Amino acid sequence: KVGGHPKPQAGPMRPAGVDRILVVGSGKGGVGKSTVSSNLAVALAKQGRRVGLLDADIYGPSQPRMMGVSKRPASPDGKTIIPLQAHGVTMMSIGLMMDPAKAVVWRGPMLMGALQQMLGQVEWGKLDVLIIDLPPGTGDVQLTLCQRAALDGAIVVSTPQDVALLDARKAIDMFQTLKTPILGLVENMSTYICPKCGHEAQIFGHGGVASEATAMGVPLLAQLPIDLDTRLAGDAGTPVALGDSPAAQAYAQLAQGLIA
Ligand code: ADP
């Protein structure tokens, strides 16, 4: 035979010991993607699953705050990184490796390096599921992960507002194009129920995500109301899913439906 060996193909990245990888994406920022990721992780852990949470939202990593951790992960040998533990979840955030006050200005290859580190050098241990909180939109991180990591499914979070839905459609389209199985849509900030009088207000509209899910042929996994406790708990680093409020029960239900 003439010529050298064929170049070895880089196989899909999946940390050893991790059974499945699920990504949580959104078309836009601010729709609750990180809130859903952390609460889903906590709800799964409460159900006895071994759960990892990787915050890959390089432009706005919010998991350290939402999960209540701020320590820089240790790397005793300078090669492997020891993830942190919070609320029964093994977690790692790109934000823990950067100066929180500095903006991220990374080119593609640096991003790829960071992602590869997060998946390959972090000692995830044995996990039933690793949840990856993606940056919003359809950029480099999503593309790299979809192409290079062995993803088992994607969840797309949207509010019922038209502008958010428009972008959610693009996110779904991206996952379909890249052949990442879509588990479904989560409608967040669905309605607001006044805690004093019980009146229900459709602040961002109503029914949009359900009809979008039908139109795109993907399941509607949950409809989560606007809930003050969810916001307060997220800000305090103790996800609402740790408790047993209606919001916590909604997350428990979402978690149960995802992993049979
Ligand atoms: P994203 O990850 O899409 O940018 P976040 O999860 O950071 O969005 O949420 C944006 C803000 O909205 C946060 O302050 C969060 O606490 C709040 N939030 C998210 N979901 C809800 C909800 N269902 N009810 C009330 N506040 C919410």
Automatic annotation (TrEMBL):
It comes from the Bacteria. GO terms for molecular function: ATP binding. Coiled coil: none annotated. The keyword Metal-binding applies. Signal peptide: none annotated. Binds and transfers iron-sulfur (Fe-S) clusters to target apoproteins. Can hydrolyze ATP. This is Iron-sulfur cluster carrier protein. It comes from Lacimonas salitolerans.
